[in-house]
Design goal:
about 110 residues; mainly alpha; two-stranded antiparallel ribbon; about 10% strand; elongated
Length: about 110
């Protein structure tokens, strides 16, 4: 399981890959060409990022005729959330986040 989690964290580490996941979340089932139109990078770069997302099982692909469609798979992110976030009390985390926001506001004001 650790190797799988490491792949997910590595895949999520790059802002370009997170943007690809956001694009799929907004419009699931896109071709490489459709994704390239929305990204400011070469087709080869998008392909490289998609490969890492597929290896981390964050993206699943389905062939429809000659088109390869890419779909977001949120399960690995959910698994991370359960392991690293949900085991802590949400109320305590929310209170800490509110405190941080308040302190940042006081320091900026």
């Amino acid at each position: 399981m650790s190797a799988d989690v490491d792949k997910v964290f590595k895949a999520l580490a790059a802002p370009e890959r997170r943007l690809l996941l956001d694009r799929l979340h907004a419009d699931n089932g896109q071709t490489l060409g459709q994704l390239c139109q929305q990204m400011n990078m070469t087709r080869q770069a998008v392909t490289k990022h998609l490969k890492l997302l597929e290896e981390a099982t964050l993206v699943a692909t389905v062939w429809r005729g000659r088109e390869k469609l890419h779909f977001l798979n949120p399960v690995p992110i959910h698994d991370i959330a359960e392991r690293w976030i949900d085991k802590y009390e949400r109320d305590r985390l929310r209170a800490l986040a509110e405190l941080k926001t308040k302190l940042e506001g006081e320091n900026n004001g």
